[in-house]
Design a protein that fits this description.
single chain; seven-stranded mixed beta sheet; two-stranded antiparallel ribbon; 11 strands; binds cytidine-5'-triphosphate; binds magnesium ion
Length: about 230
């Protein structure tokens, strides 16, 4: 691969975009800092990555001026968040390279708000993607019947066969992902869509329905219940 420098071992880094405002969550502040079982939501997210030994480094991207993210062992925080998730990820990738990551290294981009991801799920993605030319993402086959809305009414039923919900982490080579994001612009809501736009086909790796993104007010109670059940 063109990005591979000779004699430099390839590593896996985790990049956690954590610079959103959580406007759909109905919380007073950004959802990633909401308390869940006595800790901030994002700290549960970080725990999962810190328990995967082959993750070489973990970088959390927060918004400029945001000092709510606590310092901790095993991860670093950089305040280079942007106006969109894609901009926050692009800033984090540049920062990873400033800190010594190479274009051939892998990065696992993971939403701070997906606090129920497990070390086993992360390992499954790394196992599936390490030998792959493109990379891939955790995803979940669609369970429900899908409707096309027209003015609050169901206008059509979209065949759900072969449709997946994209989750994170999403794992790509840093160099490839930088090229993909630069070409795709700020509108993409995940890394895979930028890579797809280059004509490549990221691997769909089965995730779990429990790896949902805390998005709506009701999601906090659900996340709390899952974490309680795991204790
Ligand atoms: N994110 C980010 N920078 C942004 C927007 C989002 O780093 N400019 C992060 C969020 O902090 C979150 C992840 O991307 O961890 C997924 O985004 P989303 O669930 O949409 O979070 P928010 O954008 O914060 O929420 P909302 O869309 O409801 O405002
Ligand atoms: Mg958002």
């Amino acid at each position: 691969m063109a990005d591979r420098a000779p004699h430099v071992p390839v590593r896996c880094h985790a990049l956690i975009p954590c610079a959103g405002s959580g406007s759909r969550a109905g919380t007073a502040g950004p959802k990633q800092y909401e308390p869940l079982l006595g800790r901030m939501l994002v700290q549960h997210t970080l725990d999962a990555f810190l328990r995967v030994p082959r993750i070489a480094s973990v970088l959390v991207v927060v918004a400029p001026g945001d000092d709510r993210m606590p310092a901790g062992a095993g991860y670093q925080v950089v305040a280079c968040g942007g106006a969109t998730r894609a901009a926050s990820v692009a800033g984090g990738l540049a920062e990873l390279q400033r800190r010594g990551a190479t274009g051939a290294d892998w990065v696992l981009v993971h939403d701070a708000a997906r606090c129920l991801v497990t070390p086993a799920q992360i390992d499954r993605l790394v196992d599936a993607c390490t030998g792959d030319e493109v990379g891939g993402l955790l995803a979940q086959p669609l369970a429900d019947t899908l409707k096309q809305e027209d003015g609050g009414r169901a206008a059509a039923t979209v065949a759900r066969q072969g449709k997946w919900l994209a989750q994170t982490p999403q794992m790509f080579r840093i160099g490839l992902l930088q090229r993909a994001l630069a070409a795709a612009g700020d509108a993409v809501t995940d890394e895979a869509s930028a890579v797809e736009a280059l004509g490549l086909r990221p691997l769909l790796v089965p995730g779990s329905p429990q790896n949902f993104k805390v998005t709506w007010p009701d999601d906090f109670a659900l996340a709390r219940a899952v974490l309680e059940a795991r204790r």
